[in-house]
Amino acid sequence: MSVAKTRVAVLISGTGSNMASLIAAGQAADAPYEVVVVVSNIAGAGGLAKAEAAGVEALTVEHKPFGKDREAHERAIDALLVERGVQVVALAGYMRLLTPWLVGKWADRMLNIHPSLLPLYPGLNTHARAIEAGDLEAGCTVHIVTEGVDEGPILGQARVPIQPGDTPDILAERVKAAEHGLYPQALADFVRRS
């Protein structure tokens, strides 16, 4: 008898490379989760076509029609997630600051991946900041989403050496490769414990 997989939604704003790795890992027979829907705040985001190609429902809830009312936008997304029986939300390049309402609604059930070794370099421009600081390594972190930006409990990290001559773009590509291994594993571990 097979055990039902945890139903995961992935929120994206761009190309969806981490989303694609989450979908692929979730489609394995022994995976404890499956991605059942992908939602973007940007119409035509590249990740939407990738999701559809993988057989996953892909939806857009544009933020612009909601103006400055971020909570109203999030309530529209939340309604879609609830309709689809989503149990866990994974942020994968979702470039919107979340309101306390959505964070609270999905407390302890929303994950994010960040391209630094948190608590170092929360926010943006992480690779440039690591290089400028003279760090020997960079990496990525999967964490539970809380109201503070990139402050939630850490679920896993992957380390990547910083090479002489690295630019932020070169380093970003190596970190992204590490993300694609880390995020599916951290999500699987998380849902097995939940």
Name the structural class. Answer: alpha/beta
> At the first level of CATH, what is the class?
Alpha Beta
Briefly note the CATH topology name: Rossmann fold
Number of structurally distinct domains: 1
Question: How does this structure look, described?
Answer:
- The chain has about 190 residues and is α/β, with parallel strands linked by helices.
- The protein has a single domain, classed as Rossmann fold (3-Layer(aba) Sandwich).
- Helix content is about 35%, strand content about 25%.
- It contains 6 helices and 7 strands.
- Strands 3-2-1-4-5-6-7 form a 7-stranded mixed sheet.
- Strand 1, helix 1 and strand 2 form a beta-alpha-beta unit.
- The longest helix is centred in the last third of the chain and has 26 residues.
- The chain is globular and about 50 Å long.
- The two termini are about 20 Å apart.
- One of its GO terms (molecular function) is phosphoribosylglycinamide formyltransferase activity.
- Belongs to the GART family.
